[in-house]
Amino acid sequence: MRKLLIGFLSFIIAGAALAQAPTRIRGTITAVNGDVLGVKTRDGRNIELKLAPDAQVVTPKKVSAQDFKTGSYVGVTSVKDASGHLVAKRVHALGPQVPQMHGNWDSIPNSMMTNATIDSMAQVSGGTELTMKWKDGEQKILTNADTEYYNFDNGSRADLKPGASIFTGAKMGDDGKFATGRIVVSKNGVNPPQ
Questions:
Q1: In a domain, 5, yes or no
Q2: Residue 188 near residue 168 (C-beta atoms within 8 A)
């Protein structure tokens, strides 16, 4: 009986922790009603997204490779080439609050996301090889002429309007709405790179 109770409690705790894990939301704003956005997600669902009263709104802008140096903390969306090497599709600036990681990503099919510090940059055949370091490891990723680079500007709630594209990491609230404290919204034709 005790093993069954421990197993049941472990299941409940794991389920609660999973329920609190942020969900990546990409989509288009369909409505704005105060602190609640109507969003049609990339997969066709209609959801409500509640903004925290002090939610940070940021807008992406395209920049050049020269905006990133050794020591920059960045997110790199990459895919494997025919030889199995990771090639960056997008590089974007990250704030210190974004956790380090290297793992599967869903913004581009079969992509990886590496949130890490650029430890070194070396010119190689085909582009520049970034050595990315984070607390648990290191990864080499090639950037080339097709790699896109992004940074962010502070936006405002005025940028949140129907038709704009968004990206956020949100948690499901007790009211059944997703809730977030930070949102990236398209501006001047530049969509969130995440």
A1: no
A2: no
